[in-house]
Write a structure and sequence with these properties.
heterodimer, A: mainly alpha, 2 domains, 3-stranded antiparallel β-sheet, 3 strands, globular, B: alpha/beta, Rossmann fold, 6-stranded mixed β-sheet, 20 strands, 33% helix, 26% strand
Chain lengths: 365, 512
């Protein structure tokens, strides 16, 4: 049976491995291409000088000291949630319930600030609300984990549904803590006394946020890479059968890890309430629980790489807002630019994993 | 045979996977109105050959003729267009759909879907051959045998008149098997060609008109079933004994180490995998376990290792130092280790169970040892030096210690796994298909390693598939047949045909 096989023009081949510098070269080329393509799009659609638009994006992020700190604040918030998600995702447990875990953490913090604002000293308030937010988040992680371990429920749906429970819970507490009456918001908690607020460190309002999250970044990196529990998480994530074979109690690892994941996301709620907004509402999480999934995955659970990814995402978001107001564009035009940049960055991840082989044996990187 | 015209002729069919030759110039004729049994041991190329008929694989060389016309079968759709349908061992049904929906799934149609008409046609087919299918029943509500019936009706609905069944009775109870055979006979009498892939001799005798035997990818012979008997078929299946010159030192002072008594195991579908299995494994001895694959070998080893849910029975370990009896059944691997029992287990699924494919050599060595010490941090120094030692001692071919084991070749993966398992100086070593996929040199390395363990007084349980190896390597051979102990024979002087008979028939039939 003689049949000629047709060789396709381009084939995609999985890379065995890629050197560190080669990988970053691909990513930088991706970024340059992204800027070039969005330049063309900007000019074609809105007839603006792309360079001016880019400098406006930069302006939006780092234009003033205040903007710089707000950018930093938002970045560490996103990073914190990403760190929380990392152990769960490394265990192949699809925790998409960070939104809910942040909210219950936020509720716990707000509750401590409201009920103990007068009776506890500042450091006491900070510690108690930290503990309360972690416990609340851990409970929100514990419930789906137990159901998964016991009854094999689908954790994706379960954690997602827990988000809606948390949103309703928030609405309920907003109604109870309403201030002033009839505003349907909680308002700024302890506005006069600032009880339970993060104190300024070195003259910066958000310094404590940054320090807390950086400490977490290092701790989580060490935990996942060097601890016995971190090793167990990778084994369970890679192969549950191997985990059973060597006598790891898969159920208890799942529950333990999800409690850690939930606790850190709850801590993010603590930072959001006590460290930045000083109020609680259903939009306290604001979708960052989902954005953080991108942070965790793109960084392949390496918390130091997460810093870069979180910075990029926040940069794009702030930049888009600035373009929209400075050039009187509607939101969609500026979001298109962020979209193009993200597309290229994600695309370059593809090329770090695969290479193209052209017909006739020529290879491209 | 010459007077009937063959529905399908396969000529000179060759198929290779990498360096393994799965089929080597195989010839096969299939006739209408006949049930053909395709017989052979595991890995003899039965399923590969049939997959080429059903369009799943494409032959490297050879011709396929349907009704005398040369055809090219590139896809399962091509096969269906030629009237060839295959019922695979693992059913390909969508659980949440009904029988009728599954049956018409993927078929071309225009406009509105008339499920009622479909249901009527299904009922017609069922009435014709004596099937029992409710077109409206959801697949998740069905038993294994009902699912299989749906698969068969699916193939008939598409107008197939050549049906291939891959080990159809493996998942059925004796009563269900009887029912299946009745409908197969009805279909044969209706003029359909039926091929059943099997390695159960009594089924061949019961159902088939003709039998074709494959051995190591080659066509051995074809005979009318009525002209042959179990002994002849076994002969054709296992072939002549080959001398391998594997060392077999005499066991030194064997003492009971593991006693298995009346072990019965069911899988989660309620199918009995092991039935009342009893034996004793001695120290300083290699106990071989022979059997057609899927006869309970995996469940046996996993029961001892604490990974298997069991129904009844007893597994006792006898401590070599104190002589104390320790009960192993119902314990998980961690509890077993906690009682001071060092079991080593080289499972069949090396990368899915014994090792983590994406982790490097050091991290894989750590699997057994990472809990050591009180620190919250795992010790990587000891595993690293163990990895170095294994790489040097067993000459593992690897670019480095930080290479993911998935990238190593099969033989090297096995050396890493065996190296780790024997490094903990076990008292019991269990291996499943330890040399599967390994070249000659690596195989002998593994035999030597196991022999060293034996001479150190370890009780070795060696599950194998190559009878020649089992006969030359093991001190005693436990033969399993359908989850039951067919017999235990001494390895020295055992007769290959006799063991072959015991594998296919409980107790080995009259040939004993």
């Amino acid at each position: 049976m003689n049949h000629s096989t047709k060789v396709p023009l381009v084939r995609i081949v999985k890379r065995d491995s890629i050197s560190f510098w080669h990988g970053w070269l691909i990513r930088i080329i991706g970024l340059i291409l992204a800027l070039a393509v969005s330049a063309v799009v900007i000019y074609a659609i809105v007839r603006l000088n792309p360079l001016k638009v880019y400098s406006a994006m930069f302006e939006g992020n780092f234009g003033s000291e205040k903007r710089f700190w707000v950018t930093l604040r938002d970045m560490v918030m996103l990073l914190c949630i990403g760190i929380g998600l990392a152990p769960a995702f490394k265990m192949r447990f699809w925790n998409i319930g960070a939104e809910g875990q942040i909210l219950v953490g936020g509720i716990a913090t707000a509750a401590v600030m409201i009920y103990f604002g007068k009776s506890l000293p500042t450091w006491g308030l900070l510690l108690v609300s930290l503990a309360a937010s972690c416990v609340a988040g851990a409970i929100w992680g514990f419930i789906p984990a137990v159901f998964k371990a016991r009854f094999k429920t689908n954790e994706t749906l379960f954690t997602l549904m827990m988000n809606y429970v948390a949103i309703q819970l928030t609405s309920y507490f907003v109604a109870i803590w309403e201030n002033p009456f009839g505003s349907n918001t909680v308002g700024i908690i302890n506005q006069q006394t600032k009880a339970g607020w993060f104190p300024s460190l070195f003259g910066e309002k958000y310094m404590l946020n940054v320090i807390l999250v950086l400490a977490l970044t290092i701790a989580m990196f060490v935990y996942l890479r060097y601890s016995k529990q971190g090793y167990e998480i990778s084994v369970v994530g890679e192969s549950e059968r191997t985990a059973r074979y060597i006598g790891i109690n898969v159920k208890s690892v799942v529950v333990r890890t999800m409690m850690i994941s939930g606790a850190i996301c709850g801590l993010a709620g603590y930072i959001a309430v006590a460290g930045s907004s000083h109020t609680i509402s259903t939009s306290t999480a604001g979708g960052s629980g989902f954005t953080a999934i991108i942070v965790a995955w793109l960084a392949k659970f390496n918390t130091f790489v997460m810093i870069l990814v979180a910075a990029l995402l926040v940069f794009l978001e702030k930049g888009a807002i600035q373009i929209a107001s400075q050039f009187n564009l509607n939101d969609y035009a500026s979001q298109m630019i962020s979209g193009i940049i993200l597309f290229f960055i994600l695309g370059s991840e593809f090329f770090t994993n695969f290479r193209l082989v052209f017909r006739g044996g020529k290879e491209a990187n | 045979m010459q007077n009937a015209k063959a529905a399908i002729c396969m000529r000179d069919i060759t198929k290779t996977f990498g360096s393994t030759v799965a089929n080597d110039r195989v010839e096969l004729d299939i006739f209408k109105g006949e049930i053909l049994a395709l017989l052979g041991e595991n890995g003899s190329g039965k399923t590969t050959l049939m997959n080429m008929l059903s369009g799943i694989y494409f032959p490297d060389a050879g011709h396929i003729l349907v009704d005398g016309q040369e055809v090219t079968i590139r896809s399962p759709k091509d096969a269906f267009d030629l009237g060839i349908g295959m019922i695979h061992q693992h059913f390909k049904l969508v659980d949440v759909l009904t029988a009728a929906e599954n049956i018409i799934l993927g078929m071309p149609g225009t406009g509105r879907l008339d499920l009622k008409a479909v249901g009527d046609r299904i009922r017609n087919i069922c009435a014709m051959y004596g099937f029992d299918v409710d077109p409206e029943q959801k697949v998740y509500d069905m038993s294994v045998s009902q699912k299989q019936t749906v698969e068969i009706v699916k193939v008939l609905y598409r107008g197939a008149d050549i049906l291939i069944l891959d080990e159809p009775t493996a998942v059925l109870t004796p009563q269900e098997t009887e029912k299946l055979f009745t409908v197969l006979r009805n279909m044969r009498d209706d003029g359909k060609a039926i091929i059943i892939i099997t390695h159960k001799l009594h089924e061949v005798e019961e159902i088939s008109d003709r039998v074709v035997v494959l051995r190591r990818g080659q066509f051995v012979g074809g005979v009318q079933t009525k002209d042959t008997n179990a002994a002849d078929m076994t002969n054709m299946m296992v072939g002549r004994s080959v001398s391998l010159n594997i060392e077999r030192p005499e066991p030194k002072e064997p003492k009971p180490r593991i006693i298995v008594d009346g072990l019965t195991v069911q899988d989660k579908d309620g199918i009995t995998k092991l039935c009342d299995v009893s034996f004793t494994a001695y120290s300083g001895e290699i106990l071989g376990v022979a059997g057609i694959s899927g006869c309970g070998q995996k469940e046996l080893l996993e029961s001892i290792a604490g990974l298997q849910h069991y129904e009844s029975g007893r597994i006792v370990y006898i401590d070599p130092d104190t002589g104390k009896e320790i009960n192993l059944i119902g314990k998980d691997p961690r509890e077993i280790l906690g009682m001071g029992v060092t079991l080593s287990f080289v499972p069949e699924d090396r990368l899915g169970m014994g090792l983590v494919g994406s982790m490097d050599l050091t991290d894989n060595m750590m699997l057994r040892s990472f809990r050591h010490g009180k620190s919250v941090f795992a010790d990587r120094k000891t595993p690293r030096s163990l990895a170095e030692r294994v790489v040097n001692d067993l000459s593992v071919n690897t670019p480095g210690l930080s290479t993911p084991v998935r990238r190593l070749s099969g033989g090297n993966v096995q050396k890493v796994l065996v190296g780790r398992e024997i490094s903990s100086s076990p008292t019991v070593l269990m291996t499943a298909y330890a040399v599967r996929g390994l070249d000659i040199n690596s195989s002998y390395t593994i035999y030597d390693l196991i022999n060293q363990q034996k001479q150190q007084g370890v009780a070795v349980i060696f599950v194998g598939e190559d009878l020649d190896v089992l006969l030359e390597f093991c001190d005693r051979i436990l033969v399993l047949c359908g989850g039951k102990v067919s017999g235990i024979v001494p390895g020295r002087g055992a007769d290959k045909n006799q063991v072959g008979m015991m594998m296919t028939k409980l107790g080995g039939g009259e040939a004993k």
